Amino acid sequence: MLKTKKNQQFTNLKGQLFRCIVASFTAVGLLALGGNAVILSQAHADAPDVSVRNWYSYMGISVPELKPSWTAQVDNYLNMNEPYIGHQAVAEEGKVFTFADSKLISLDAKTGKRLWSYGKGLTPYVVYHNNVIYGLTGDHKPYALNAKTGKAIWQSGSSTWIDTRYRTEMLVPTGDTLYIIQGSTTFAFDMKTGKLKWRADEPLGEGNGTDYLEESNGVVLRTFYVQGALTSIQLNAYDKKTGRKLWDDFGQGEALQIKDGLVYSVDYHSSKLTEYQSKPERKVSVNAYNLKTGVQKGSVEYNWKMNGDPPYDYGYGSIFASNGKLYIEQGDRVAEYNFDKYTANADPLRTYPRPFYKENGQSLGIVQERLIYKNETTGELAGIKLVNGQEIKWYGDAPVAQISVYGKGMYRTQRNGTMFGINMLTATPVFRVTTGADLHEATLMTDGMIIIQAEGKLLGVKLPASLR
């Protein structure tokens, strides 16, 4: 034991002596290097030029998770041209119609089983009307198929192709005519034969047509964006049989209502000519025109004042009619008027707070007795109950990708690869589905199934009874 202790002491002594020698040389080196020695003796990580944190987080929501009944691979809508996104799939009568390998396919909504396929190199646009599927070939010739069998009823020999410019493109089937909107051009095809009946263009629109088309009593109405001293909307009327333009009116928007041979339309142009920042007075004019001649038969005005002090906001917003009432956005509120029984200088029947007023909110109309608004920045929705003016919101636990509503069911796909089914009336989340996708298109619904459109795939999910 004594021997071991002496050896240990000797070893410690040698170590201490060695450290002293090293320290002496180190001290000399430090004197020679001066202040630079501090830099050489420390390691530094690169500092970022910009570093910001998103502190906003969503609260986790615990709900039952539903498993898809089936999954099918389809053409990815993200690879499609802008005009076709949102039109590449429909669900009707227990079937889903969409595209795979540029072919139109039909799937059983409950099982995902492929029922039939049609064509090749098709334009990814499909609509359903009275058991018939309508679409466009690769060179934009419309076709009609039996929705049950996939057999061709007709394919037109006339193309609606104009040029490579992206423009509004819509297929609008009615009772006996298939209308196709191509920018500022309107095509009318016979529903039974596919024969082109007429084609009409609004030259002042220069390709800038909206997706609005309405047919009434032998007249077809459309709207266009027309250049002038100020660009504004323009309402056109065409003869349904020939396509001949009957009349137009610059500054007038789509029909709020067509009743007793009269078209009621908002004058959007006059408000642009007023100096709004210094004056609080605001006015909306609704003009009435003879449907067939375009002769103005009357006009009504709705007046209000902006709150606060100048400079005032523009104050004008969305205007729409529903169930005999007219709704006008007036600054930070929405005013409700009796549209069927107009009284000059009448106060609104009711006013409601306007959701997302300072956040670029967009009106989506009335659903389930609620004014629905979308926040254009975040994609979130908010509603105002018509019965009491109470605001209601429908929350998830991740940023929104897309929201679809059917009846009392709200289907919220999110950018974390999930979807929530929410009871719209109670704002209560009911279930969750894992989709595995970041972006989603509109959720479809048919025969007790919802069809989730993820990136390059469809997921069929059976709805719980509480949301049917």
TrEMBL record:
<dbReference type="InterPro" id="IPR015943">
    <property type="entry name" value="WD40/YVTN_repeat-like_dom_sf"/>
</dbReference>
<dbReference type="InterPro" id="IPR002372">
    <property type="entry name" value="PQQ_rpt_dom"/>
</dbReference>
<dbReference type="Pfam" id="PF13360">
    <property type="entry name" value="PQQ_2"/>
</dbReference>
<dbReference type="InterPro" id="IPR018391">
    <property type="entry name" value="PQQ_b-propeller_rpt"/>
</dbReference>
<dbReference type="InterPro" id="IPR011047">
    <property type="entry name" value="Quinoprotein_ADH-like_sf"/>
</dbReference>
<protein>
    <recommendedName>
        <fullName>Pyrrolo-quinoline quinone repeat domain-containing protein</fullName>
    </recommendedName>
</protein>
<feature type="domain" description="Pyrrolo-quinoline quinone repeat">
    <location>
        <begin position="89"/>
        <end position="275"/>
    </location>
</feature>
